[in-house]
Amino acid sequence: MSFTCRNQSCGAQWELSDVVIKNEGQGLLFRCPMCGARNYVERFESDDGTVVYEQLEGRPFQ
Ligand SMILES: [Zn+2]
Q1: 24: left (phi over 0), alpha (psi -120 to 50) or beta
Q2: Local mean pLDDT, 10-residue blocks, the chain (62 residues)
Q3: pLDDT attached to residue 62
Q4: Domain presence at residue 60
Q5: 62 within a domain of the structure (yes/no)
Q6: Which of 7, 29, 32, 40 could make an SS bond with 56 (beta carbons 3.0 to 4.6 A apart)?
Q7: Which protein residues have their CB within 5 A of the ion that is ligand 1?
Q8: How many domains does the chain have?
Q9: Record's superkingdom (predicted)?
Q10: Which domain holds residue 17?
């Protein structure tokens, strides 16, 4: 699974291990290591406890 920076002039692709996912108060996101753009993600946890993150198209609905 990989993420694509939503800054269209960047568009860099990152693996989960490349980025730091944190909550800055508007939902989970990572900042692109190349351009610093905010990329929002959603956290899912499977029954066996595996955590996966899915990239959102835009901002999470407030
Ligand atoms: Zn970027």
Answers
A1: alpha
A2: 92 96 93 97 94 87 62
A3: 56
A4: no
A5: no
A6: 40
A7: 5, 7, 10, 12, 32, 34-35, 37
A8: 1
A9: Bacteria
A10: 2-55
